[in-house]
Every structure is written in structure tokens, then in C-alpha cells.
Hints:
25 strands; alpha/beta; about 25% helix; 13-stranded mixed sheet; 2 domains
Amino acid sequence: xxxxxxxxxxxxxxxxxxxxxxxxxxxxxxxxxxxxxxxxxxxxxxxxxxxxxxxxxxxxxxxxxxxxxxxxxxxxxxxxxxxxxxxxxxxxxxxxxxxxxxxxxxxxxxxxxxxxxxxxxxxxxxxxxxxxxxxxxxxxxxxxxxxxxxxxxxxxxxxxxxxxxxxxxxxxxxxxxxxxxxxxxxxxxxxxxxxxxxxxxxxxxxxxxxxxxxxxxxxxxxxxxxxxxxxxxxxxxxxxxxxxxxxxxxxxxxxxxxxxxxxxxxxxxxxxxxxxxxxxxxxxxxxxxxxxxxxxxxxxxxxxxxxxxxxxxxxxxxxxxxxxxxxxxxxxxxxxxxxxxxxxxxxxxxxxxxxxxxxxxxxxxxxxxxxxxxxxxxxxxxxxxxxxxxxxxxxxxxxxxxxxxxxxxxxxxxxxxxxxxxxxxxxxxxxxxxxxxxxxxxxxxxxxxxxxxxxxxxxxxxxxxxx
Length: 467
């Protein structure tokens, strides 16, 4: 660990001073030590149980080997990663109170405009802390709770947070979940009471701006019986010449008869290691819908899991990845069928170009108790040149005698005849390729909110044409 060591008392401070102003920008030293974990815990004014949870997670991290699956992570050195960076801003519910430097970044991303035109609430995180949070009055009056995780941890819903925090994704499961448990900061907490249908989406946006650092936000969403919600998540970061790390965590609890759609576009810079974990549990008659776009990052491990616990629970996953030069994206989806007559549908598309590597992992487990379950998995991969690579890794563990299971995978090159035809109609080669790839991605983009569909199509066009 580099840099002069300081005691906890020298570098620990509260987030706000006595006048309620934000403390200056602050970050811990790079690396991972118990002292650093205690400093983060002090900075965030954790309750005792969370401090103990962090320290135990660090012990698990140190005892656990790197994951045995996916692409190598040897180049990721945690001794060089700063795990907590507090921006020079306190959290505000008034957009005009956000510091100009941070505000201009989010305005460029279109966050304030999206809030005004079609969102029930917005949370905006900059590095390790949420700097802005709001929820429309008419939605709050329905009993919907939408706040940052730090406030939820210490407020009225602290008991609910403690009951659910990292229960779906335990720190003991793999090394980077243990890391998350030790250093998590920021994120969103949502609670929708029984029978409440949130009419327009909630959105959280995570902007990662510090070089050589990590972002470890935690999202916890709890839906009551018969409730419904569309939650949108966006992520982005500038490019640096040093490795950055994202190891966030998303836990979704969908009660009986409830419905949750979780849409996300991750647009990371290509120096990012994206080792994110997402999991949902669904009770009787409930439904979880994942819509996912993964762009950027040097290396990604991302496999949202749905646990269908109740009869007639449903899961749909629709996702796309784009791997360009120097990128290794290992993504997919997992479903556990634990009850009769449950249904899952996985539809994934991947695009690879300029030597990019894309791997899809589709994991489905059907327990002996899940008779009558129906499963459909489809993976389409498009390679834009002979240097790129695309692999599919299906894992099917079917223990029920009468489950209906279907799996289909297609891997192919872009059609030279189609490119020639479009060029003969006046398009350049790059524009022709962009049009074909856009059509390939259309089933995904139509499932996204309009502004995210536009963003996804823009990212694809940028990857293809460079402008």
C-alpha cells in the first residue's frame, strides 16, 4: 500500500460539519486494511452492526480466492485501488444546490431533464456518495419510499435494511461480494407498499469520476404484495490510464403478485473492471423483468439471477453486450426454478468487433419441486470481423420430470451481401454496418425507455463508426 500511513483519528471525520456544510473532498488510501474499513465506517456514521459486517466481509475477502470462471483478473491490483472517494458536496433535494462541477456533469447526461419529463424520482451518485435525491410528492403520498442507502440505514427503515442487506447476495459467495460488503457506499433504497402501482419510473444514476478508484453502490428494492414498479439505472465513467473497479450490488425482493422491471444501461470507460452482482427473489405470481445493456469496460462479469420461489412466478431477461478492441465481456443470466409452474425466458444478444471477446453464460436450475415449469433460452451473437470471438456456455440442471426446456444459440458473421446491398444504395460501409447492427439490437432497444433506447443506439453507432 503506497503513501504515508495515518491513524484513523487523523483521517476520519464526519460527512458534514457543525454548520451542515459538506466536508472537503476526501478519499481513503489505496488498498484494503482493517484501518481503512474502520475509516469508511466512521465517515459514514455506520451503526455498530454494519461496522462489524464490514470487518467480517474483509476477513472473508482475504480468505477467498479469485473466481475460477470468466476472463483472468490478474491485472487488477487492489493495492492500487482507492475504495472510498467522497465528493465535495452534501446531498441535496434541490438541484440548484448541487455544486456546479458536479451539476454540469449530470446535466450533460440529461438527468435533470429526464426527471422533469418522465420520472417519479431521481437519485444521482458521484463517486462514493449520493449528491442529489428527489421523489415526486404524489408518489411519496402513495407511501413509496425512495432514498439513498445511507439514509435508509440510519432512518425509519433501518430495521428493513438490516433484515434484507446482502441476504440474497452473501459476502461468502465470492471474493468480490466480500469486497462489496467491506467497502460499499451509496446506492438506492426503494420500498413500495402492498397494492401500490408506481405510475412512472424511478431512476438512479451512478457517475464514477475518480481515477484509480472503485465504486461500490448498493441498491435494495422491496416490493409489497401486488405492487408494481419500473426502476431505471444508468452508469458511466470517463476514461483514465489506470484501472478502475466497479463492484456494485443489486438486491430485489418481489412479493406475491408484484411486478418489477429493472432496466439498466452500463456505459463504462474501457479501463473499468465491471464485477457487478444482481439478484432477485420472486414470490407466488410475481414477476421480474430485466432489461440490460452492457457497453464499455475492460472486463465484465455480470449475470443477473432470478430466484422463482412461488408458484407461477415469472422471469424475463433481455440483454445486449458490445465487446470492442481490448474488451472481455463475460455476461449472461441465471434462473432458479424452485416452485411449480414457474416460467423464465432469457433472450441475449452480443456483438463483438476488432478482436473483442464476448461470452454468454445462461444458467438454469429446475428443482424437483418445480414441475410444470417452462424455460426458454435464446442467445444470438454477431461478430463483425474474423479477429473477434463469441462463446456461449449453457448450463442446464433440470431435476423435474415434466419441465419444458428450450435452448437456442446462433453465432454468425455480419452479412457481406447485406453490406454490399446497402452500400449500393448510397450508404458508406460503416453506416451500412451500423444499420445492420442496429436492426440486430432492435428487440433490446424497444424494451428500454425512449431516452435509454436512443442512448443505446448512439453507443452502438459510436462503436461502429467512431462518431
